Amino acid sequence: MGIPQGPAGVRGALWRSLTVYRWVSLAYAVALVGQTLGQADRPALGVTLFGVMTAWSLVMSVLAPAIDGRCPRLLAVLVAADVTLCAAMVVLTLPVGPRSGHVLPGMWSAGGVLGAALLGGTAGGLVAGLLLSIATFVERGVVNDSSIGTAVLFLLSGTIVGYLSRTALVAETALADLLAARAGDAERERLARRVHDGVLQALALISREAPRGLPAAEVAAMAAEQEAALRELLRTPAVAPVMAGAAGGRSGGRSGGTTAGRTAGRATGRSGGRVPRTGSGISADLVEPLLRLARPAAPGRGAVTVATPGAPVPLGVECAREVVAAVEATVDNVARHAGPGASAWVLVEDDGDRVVVTVRDDGVGMAAGRPEQAAAEGRLGLAVSVRGRVRELGGTVTVTSRPGAGTEVELRVPR
């Protein structure tokens, strides 16, 4: 995720706002002066000045936003010309005729100050405001409360707008950097999750089972499968996961029963996308793939019992896949870390605006702070495969455990 910058960002919005200001102030000047211009000494010169103001407003409205961020030198020349022309417009109102007979408002000329402030920040606005202030004193021919007030207005507007525009641009850049960093962190976590669910589990399985005589042909097949999955992941880093099913199925087969493990791997949708869809395909039923995680107790492993509401629990297809993958990772953690023969109970609840899945086991439990310690040691099952997935769905994960009393992991996912 990013934010628009350049013409589509804060600077572009400021230039467009200045364009609106130019045309509104020009309309105000025409409406006000048009009533008294006939009393001026040189009304034709006044009309000419209005023509120049109109033409220049059109030039600045079109060119300044278009070249901002693309041609900085040309923009600087254009803004300098803008300030010079605005000062000239102020001075040239003097030969039009006596001020008692007409008024050429200084509002339009303030556009040059604001443009310099947008380009040069506080310094640019201050210099332009000073130039317009001098032009005002020349046009008035006297230093009085009126001319001083106008000069102060030019100086303040240039300084304040310059400071605020520069602050807004700095904030925009900082926000863009923050969003880029977040996107990078999210991508790294996504890759870590896929690697953990696939390659790391496959390597852990080989390390655990090789001394027991894991067939070489199966090791070779697993290696080839994970190599292909990694290559696919590197080719398309932003697409849905493609690699976890292989290791998930095989590791499940060795550590928790071949049929149950492979079935569970397919149910998550990680290797075959077999999350049953309902309706038009926008939603998927969470119940069926979770029921496939159930298995009876066997020597060296505990049972997995799944309890559901007895009716479909619809979720978005991708959301359902991620929830099932997170639940499977939690059940796998029970088999790996809860102790020999530990059983797990999976409870699915449909609360209307959210879905709650609770995984509870009767294993050895864990001490406070153990999940964080495991993540620091590089063991990413709970931190990445479970919490990372649910967090990306906008949900939360709560872990409750104490030594000797088992562990309960609650996943809350909003619809």
UniProtKB/TrEMBL annotation:
<feature type="region of interest" description="Disordered">
    <location>
        <begin position="246"/>
        <end position="281"/>
    </location>
</feature>
<keyword id="KW-0808">Transferase</keyword>
<dbReference type="Pfam" id="PF02518">
    <property type="entry name" value="HATPase_c"/>
</dbReference>
<keyword id="KW-0418">Kinase</keyword>
<feature type="transmembrane region" description="Helical">
    <location>
        <begin position="108"/>
        <end position="135"/>
    </location>
</feature>
<feature type="domain" description="Histidine kinase/HSP90-like ATPase">
    <location>
        <begin position="325"/>
        <end position="414"/>
    </location>
</feature>
<dbReference type="InterPro" id="IPR036890">
    <property type="entry name" value="HATPase_C_sf"/>
</dbReference>
<keyword id="KW-0902">Two-component regulatory system</keyword>
<feature type="transmembrane region" description="Helical">
    <location>
        <begin position="44"/>
        <end position="67"/>
    </location>
</feature>
<dbReference type="InterPro" id="IPR003594">
    <property type="entry name" value="HATPase_dom"/>
</dbReference>
<dbReference type="Pfam" id="PF19354">
    <property type="entry name" value="DUF5931"/>
</dbReference>
<feature type="transmembrane region" description="Helical">
    <location>
        <begin position="20"/>
        <end position="38"/>
    </location>
</feature>
<feature type="compositionally biased region" description="Gly residues">
    <location>
        <begin position="246"/>
        <end position="259"/>
    </location>
</feature>
<feature type="domain" description="DUF5931">
    <location>
        <begin position="10"/>
        <end position="176"/>
    </location>
</feature>
<dbReference type="GO" id="GO:0000160">
    <property type="term" value="P:phosphorelay signal transduction system"/>
</dbReference>
<keyword id="KW-1133">Transmembrane helix</keyword>
<keyword id="KW-0812">Transmembrane</keyword>
<dbReference type="InterPro" id="IPR045975">
    <property type="entry name" value="DUF5931"/>
</dbReference>
<dbReference type="InterPro" id="IPR050482">
    <property type="entry name" value="Sensor_HK_TwoCompSys"/>
</dbReference>
<keyword id="KW-0472">Membrane</keyword>
<feature type="transmembrane region" description="Helical">
    <location>
        <begin position="147"/>
        <end position="165"/>
    </location>
</feature>
<feature type="compositionally biased region" description="Low complexity">
    <location>
        <begin position="260"/>
        <end position="269"/>
    </location>
</feature>
<feature type="transmembrane region" description="Helical">
    <location>
        <begin position="74"/>
        <end position="96"/>
    </location>
</feature>
<protein>
    <submittedName>
        <fullName>Two-component system sensor kinase</fullName>
    </submittedName>
</protein>
<dbReference type="GO" id="GO:0016301">
    <property type="term" value="F:kinase activity"/>
</dbReference>
